[in-house]
Amino acid sequence: MPRFVLIAVYVAWPVGVVVVRLVTPVRLRCLLMAAAGWLAALAVGTTGTPAERALPAGLLAGAGVGLGAQLMVARGVTFEWEPERIYDAYEGKIPVGEWVVLGLAGVAGLVGLASLIWG
């Protein structure tokens, strides 16, 4: 996959999250986890070698971190020393905007995976 496409995905991912946030309600915890995934993608993509494998690997790793973290904290946060207590519990329906943010991370990860396989 051409390098400019991968860089475009790195740019489009956070821009898409901001646009979704402006259009629909998205909770802060979802935005923070999406940012953590994007930062993980940038860390791997900019420091990995060889460079032609680092960009797609960064997208794949960042999407994994972002998706995993968002799904883990979607309903609340617990800690090992107090497992019966849920902090910032959310019992309502997950907002549609958050599913779109998850979808953006998934697409970024799929682009990275496709580039690693067929790149």
What would your notes on this structure say?
By secondary structure, the chain is mainly alpha-helical. The chain is built from four helices and two strands, in the order H-H-H-E-E-H. It has helices spanning 3-23, 28-47, 51-73, 96-118, and strands at 77-79, 82-87. It has a two-stranded antiparallel ribbon. The longest helix is centred in the middle third of the chain and has 23 residues, at 51-73. The chain is globular and about 45 Å long. The relative contact order is 0.21.
Mean pLDDT equals 91
Radius of gyration, Cα only, in angstroms? 15 Å
Q: In total, how many beta strands?
A: 2
Q: Which stretches are poorly predicted, pLDDT < 50 over at least 5 residues?
A: none
The ordered H/E elements are HHHEEH
Structural class: mainly alpha
User: How many helices does DSSP assign?
Assistant: 4
The main sheet comes to: 2 strands, antiparallel
Give helix % range: over 70%
Strand content: 5-15%
What general outline do the C-alpha atoms trace? globular
Structure keywords:
119 residues, 73% helix, two-stranded antiparallel sheet, 8% strand
Tell me the layout of helices and strands.
Layout: H1 3-23, H2 28-47, H3 51-73, E1 77-79, E2 82-87, H4 96-118
Antiparallel strand pairs: 1-2
Helix pairs in contact: 1-2, 1-3, 1-4, 2-3, 2-4, 3-4
